[in-house]
Amino acid sequence: MNLILNGNWLVKFGAGWSGHCKKLQPVLENLAQHYNSDNENSKVKVAQVHCEEYESICIKYNIIGYPSLVFFDEGEIKHYRGPRLFENFKEAIDKHLNKEFVAFSQNQPSKIIVITNENLDLLLTGNWLVKFGAAWSLHCKKLQPVLENLAQHYNSDNENSKVKVAQVHCEEDNSICKKYNITGYPSLVFFNEGQIKHYTGPRQFENFKEAIDKHFKYGVKWSGHCKKFQPVLENLAQHYNSDIENSKIKVAQVHCEGDDSICKKYNITGYPSLVFFDEGETKPYRGLREFDKIKEATDKHFK
User: What residues does the Thioredoxin domain cover (predicted)?
Assistant: First the structure.
């Protein structure tokens, strides 16, 4: 690794699972073909670091997203933030060598939203994935690039995004971490309209994305609105399901968390969703969620 402390280097920090890294690889190969053909005399060399295998190197250089393109100039580093096509890289490298700093920057902006005591109320509305962590934690540092990629994916349009990615620095805002009983770093928590559920699955980008899309698109049994509605549903079941074999109307429920294929099949996009099934024909119920109102609509629909 001491090689990059001397001379000029363009280094890609990446991970094998990253789709963006895979997309960039042919461009990097062409750059290497162009600049590395004569390693001894080339003014710039192209290299890469596999962060899954050499995470200590990526931590050392504060890599927080994959791929990260970094220019090393006699040990000094600058991040590349321009377009990722061959000609763009070549132009930026040539200008950099001529001291025309255009596409390189000392700082790499983060799209992760930082939650503090001042904006804590944000978590009470909408859907969030929040990482509670500490700067000294190696596990937090290892997770940070994945979180950056999630933020890049979900936070690009903060106003319209259905899910936002955020983090809490427990060293600076310990009262928040105490409030949510955080006992280990990093802790990952889903917030759904203020309701919380801890994420305990694998910590790769695709695992998070799958879990996020599943929890926030099709509905889950821990939804506050579902919990509030459950007593009404129980009363309806008591009324209609007492004699299931002979009853003309039956009351049932689907837990979308466990049976998301069913919810996908019927295009369920909010929860709770109430649907009448009449010999296979479906009709959503959109009225008030009170016993009398639902009973009136049910009796009228199946009359």
Answer: 1-98, 102-217
